[in-house]
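agent> Task received from the user: take the single chain below, predict its 3D structure, and emit structure tokens. No templates, no multimer pairing.
agent> Plan: (1) validate residues, (2) run structure prediction, (3) serialize to tokens, (4) report one or two observations.
agent> Step 1 OK, no nonstandard residues flagged.
tool_call: predict_structure(input=
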Amino acid sequence: MKKPATPGFVPEAMSAPPALSHPFRSGALSMRKPTRFDLTPDAATRKAAAVELGLISVPALRFKGEIRPAPNRDFVLEAHLTAIVEQPCGVTLAPVRAEIRETVRRRYVSDWVEPQGDEAEMPEDDTAEAMPEVIDAGLVALEALVLSLPLYPRAAGAELGEIVATPPGAAPLRDEDLRPFASLAALKDKMGGGTEGGTEG
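)
tool_result: status=success, residues=201
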């Protein structure tokens, strides 16, 4: 499954706030030292994130890292994502628990030029994207979580099966076509401008 061309969605026009948001205004970030963050959302926030991402629950979630200055007035976000999630089994809908541990990296480029032609298909650095006005560590965490979810959650003893949905006049859509991009699309709809936040250390 192809990863979205832009590794981190940029907030632009928020109609409703996402479940987890921790924004940093890029113009206010230090060019001399890293800006560190450690996100450990409470139970209410994790519950809202579960609803937003189509999960049964998110019993644990932590996103710890930093946004550090890089050459050419760029910034690099690097963080470690740890989470426990419960997804519905694709066959029985019973809860299926998964533990996620991922290192997440994003490079925000100040003089970004949109790739053209073959460059758009095979970028040299697939973590790079245009510098946004707001770098939201919470939204990066949610996107990284979605991309790390097991594609085919199965409860113990569940028989393998496949759900095929065919709207009138359309090609069949199978369960593998729907995740994780359905959650990513819903998450993108939530994104928009934010306020400054976080601490420097």
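agent> Step 4: summary for the user.
Strands lie at 23-25, 35-39, 57-70, 74-88, 95-109, 128-130, 134-136, 164-165, 173-174.
agent> Done.
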